[in-house]
Specification:
Order of helices and strands of chain A: HEEEEEEEE
Strand order of the largest sheet of chain A: 1-2-6-5
Number of helices of chain A: 1
Shape of chain A: globular
Radius of gyration of chain B: 25 Å
Number of helices of chain B: 19
Strand content of chain B: under 5%
Strand content of chain A: over 45%
Oligomer: heterodimer
Order of helices and strands of chain B: HHHHHHHHHHHHHHHHHHH
Structural class of chain A: mainly beta
Low-confidence stretches of chain B: 491-496
Mean pLDDT of chain A: 79
Radius of gyration of chain A: 19 Å
Structural class of chain B: mainly alpha
Shape of chain B: globular
């Protein structure tokens, strides 16, 4: 009887946890810091990670006003851990890049970079 | 579902390490401590067949469980990717180091466990077979290097991978040895091994344990220096914070190890085996608990970005200190309307607006929960006092009522029920059943609330029961340890935003106190006087500390 109680409680406690997606891979640098995107012109954004990234298992979304998501094309950069995001021509306004990347160390990482597009 | 998958992923990391310690630590135990071939054929040997069979069984069971854990990790990764990426991750996943390395390690572990199961268990006194088992384990140990986080690094990759493997081996030697000690004690309790086995193996392990801990520190220090490059990185990041938790837990475990060694020396020097038989087994149990939590913390640490990579997201020591600064707890809550009004802006990606109401709502919840715990723990501490000082002697007759302090958990459960989910019944517009079964997070909160209530009723029943054989008292320390485990493994947060770290630092501190609460209560139930009273008081004092942390909790605005 006690064993059943213990098992049930432990199981319930397991289920009772909420969890975020955790990360070992983090962005160490990104080009938006020094090179802003200008309106009405396709552009590229470079993201540098502290770990190798499995590109085939990673996604980057452009988030527009109203939190509308659009999947973007991503390619490998020249350096290790660097990815290039191809940004379509955008009107001036507030945007964000929301990415989900699978790092070589086995961790799935989610993060958001907010940015502004101006004329 | 992604939340559950990711949570299981973080737990399976700790479970993986436990199995690794059982298997590899067991091999070390056999090769360096038991050395059964030296006693082969001698009568009255303290190392009899029953002990060796059980030792080998722990090794291959640990190995087979490790295979299962390794495969389950891969399944969890697939589950997580399907949930997060919303697509099937193959064939890309099959080409990753994690998949290939994981499968190879599972295969090599199965080989090692199979050898121990089919061969070593039939020849447990054979030196040749023990050495072969060690050799068979070697490729499996090396293969693990490609699954540690150093494998994804750009700088000093091989050095870090090697150091991590050595660190794991040293930890396995110590923790696996402690598991084996528990095994020896259980066998002796059931009269399956000669009486002299316990002191003999304790004495041998005493030296072996010191060497293992030395190796843990020697390998751990350069890894830490590679990942943490400043004092601020140690104090102000999740990685540094969990490393400090590991150091605290290591110190706790070493405290128990010191008590064990003192008892061994007392036996060797003066022939006094009282502590060796009546206290050390329970110290070893408590040490085991601490080490198991330590392994889970180590697994959590591996999912943190190193401090060296996030200099811009590191909190200053002043900010960390401010988290623990005593302040008046918030006793007034923002209105429900204000809270709901700020939610849309708070969770938006574009145009995100921090919600003061949400922060204050959360502060109020934490602070009031802290008041509950603090008051409960004060009652609990008073319950250990035999007589009150003279000026308070008039209320002596009421002191016995303090044993009902677990009722506070029931009140806390009711409070949480009303406050956890503002948008649902009874405060919000969404109905009870609708919110419980249609929203995973609400369901989880409801379960947590139920658990607090159950904990209160069970511990209350345990404190007032007149049945000396009741098992109810053991529920509390087990749940407290599990709570500590949750606080420590739950604490690593995405991307180390400073505000998220500042929330984490309080929770990890509470995790340590929850573990002290658990060990203290366990020892109170097991030890004789005066140890049991001291342990019991330390236990509720830890609860008091948790109450204070919650009472002064201040959430950053985000």
């Amino acid at each position: 009887m006690m064993k059943k109680i213990f098992s049930s409680i432990l199981l319930l406690m397991l289920l009772a946890q909420t969890h975020n997606l955790y990360a070992h891979a983090v962005i160490t640098d990104y080009s938006l810091k020094i090179t802003p995107i200008h309106a009405n012109k396709p552009d590229q954004v470079e993201l540098s990670f502290n770990s190798k990234i499995e590109l085939g298992l990673s996604q980057v979304f452009l988030v527009r006003k109203g939190d509308k998501h659009e999947l973007l094309e991503v390619t490998n950069g020249k350096k290790q851990g660097q990815i290039i995001i191809h940004i379509p021509a955008l009107e001036a306004g507030d945007y964000a890049l929301r990415f989900k990347v699978f790092a070589a160390d086995g961790h799935l990482t989610e993060d958001i970079i907010r940015f502004k597009v101006s004329h | 579902m992604a939340g559950i998958a990711d949570f299981l992923d973080s737990l399976i990391g700790g479970f993986d390490l436990i199995c690794f310690c059982l298997a590899i630590g067991g091999l070390f135990w056999g090769l360096f401590l038991l050395r059964p071939w030296e006693n082969a054929g001698t009568s009255n040997s303290p190392l009899n067949n029953a002990l060796l069979q059980k030792t080998v069984a722990l090794i291959y069971k640990g190995g087979f469980w490790l295979v299962a854990a390794q495969l389950f990790k891969i399944v969890l990764k697939i589950w997580l990717m399907v949930a997060v990426l919303e697509r099937w991750p193959f064939p890309e996943f099959a080409e990753t180091t994690q998949f290939i390395g994981g499968m190879v390690r599972a295969f090599l572990t199965a080989l090692m466990a199979g050898y121990c199961y089919y061969i070593l268990s039939k020849h447990p006194f054979s030196k040749q077979h023990w050495l072969t088992a060690g050799l068979v384990a070697l490729p499996m140990i090396i293969s693990g290097a490609w699954l540690v986080h150093a494998a994804g690094r750009f700088d000093n990759r091989i050095l870090l991978m090697s150091l991590t493997v050595i660190h794991q081996l040293a930890a396995a030697a110590w923790v696996g040895g402690i598991f084996q000690l528990v095994n020896v004690w259980l066998l002796q309790r059931d009269n399956k091994v000669p009486e002299q086995s316990w002191p003999l193996l304790l004495r041998r392990f005493s030296i072996f344990g010191i060497i293992s801990v030395g190796l843990i520190l020697l390998s751990g220090l350069p890894i830490s220096l590679q990942y943490i490059d400043s004092w601020n990185g140690l104090i102000g990041t999740g990685y540094g914070n969990l490393l400090m938790v590991k150091v605290v837990l290591l110190s706790l475990a070493l405290g128990f190890a010191w008590l064990n060694r003192s008892a061994v020396l007392q036996f060797v020097g003066y022939g006094n085996d009282y502590a060796l038989k009546n206290r050390v087994p329970y110290y070893v149990q408590a040490e085991t608990l601490v080490l198991v939590i330590l392994l889970f913390t180590a697994a959590s640490l591996a999912s943190q970005p190193p401090a060296i990579d996030i200099p811009d997201l590191t909190a200053s020591w002043q900010e960390v200190l401010d988290t623990f600064t005593p302040r008046f707890p918030r006793t007034s809550s923002p209105t429900h309307t204000d809270l709901i009004a700020g939610e849309a802006g708070r969770v938006a990606i574009i145009g995100q607006t921090p919600s003061m109401a949400a922060t204050e709502w959360s502060n109020y919840n934490h602070n009031i929960a802290g008041i509950f715990l603090t008051v409960m723990s004060i009652f609990a501490m008073v319950s250990y006092v035999k007589y009150l000082p003279a000026p308070l002697s008039a209320i002596d007759k009421y002191v016995h009522l303090t044993k009902y302090w677990p009722l506070g958990f029931v009140c806390l459960g009711i409070f949480l029920f009303f406050r956890s989910d503002a948008e649902t019944w009874p405060l919000g517009p969404i109905g009870f059943w609708e919110s419980t079964f249609n929203n995973g997070e609400v369901l989880q909160h409801r379960i947590a609330t139920l658990l607090v209530l159950v904990l209160g009723f069970m511990e209350l029943a345990a404190r007032v029961t007149k049945n000396p054989d009741s098992k109810l008292p053991y529920v509390f320390p087990i749940l407290a340890a599990f709570g500590g485990l949750m606080l420590l493994t739950h604490s690593h947060v995405g991307f180390q935003a400073k505000s998220a770290f500042l929330i984490q630092v309080g929770h990890t501190s509470m995790g340590i106190f929850a573990l002290i609460l658990s060990c203290g209560r366990w020892l109170e139930l097991k030890l004789d006087s005066p140890g049991k009273d001291i342990a019991g008081f330390i236990s509720v004092f830890a609860l008091f500390q948790m109450g204070l942390i919650l009472m002064f909790y201040l959430e950053p605005l985000y």
